[in-house]
Specification:
This protein is mostly helical and 155 residues long. It is built from 9 helices and no strands. The longest helix has 14 residues.
């Protein structure tokens, strides 16, 4: 935040700040900062990292359909970027697209089995407890370990 106060127009600082904000439960604020970063640096607007963080921030903000779009854009730029596969999974579950979430989970698990096993075990990026529970639950639903109806209460 101090770096952002010193230079509020630095896209790199905005990207890092947004990632920290999303991780701490401030999804809407993170989305605002990432859109600002995209406006300030249009030549790098295809950055898979910014799109991936937008997908994650959209999950945190419960803007699942937008998150799906950002994840797909990130995967278009960098198909093997594992965190994006995870964000696609959680946003698909959030949007109620369970069959697509299961397919995305299977694709991600094939790409990085340990990463997805760790997510099922609770190793997720969210610091806020309700986001952590929702994220793990959505992974478990996509893996076929929980009933999809369990998501209804936390969407």
């Amino acid at each position: 935040r101090r770096a952002h106060e010193m230079n509020p127009n630095d896209p790199t600082v905005l990207r890092f700040l947004a990632a920290l904000e999303a991780g701490s439960g401030e999804g809407e604020r993170a989305i605002e900062h990432l859109h600002q970063a995209l406006r300030l640096s249009p030549r790098q607007s295809r950055s898979h990292e910014i799109y991936q963080i937008l997908a994650y921030a959209s999950f945190v903000a419960k803007q699942y359909k937008e998150g799906i779009g950002w994840a797909l854009r990130a995967l278009n730029d960098m198909p093997a970027f594992v965190p994006t596969h995870g964000n696609l999974v959680t946003c698909l579950v959030g949007a109620g697209e369970i069959d697509k979430a299961k397919a995305a989970f299977a694709a991600g698990q094939k790409l990085a089995p340990e990463y997805f096993r760790m997510r099922l075990d609770g190793a997720v990026a969210s610091a806020r407890p309700e986001d952590r529970r929702r994220q793990v639950l959505f992974y478990r639903i996509a893996a076929g370990l929980e009933d999809p109806s369990a998501a209804d209460a936390v969407r």
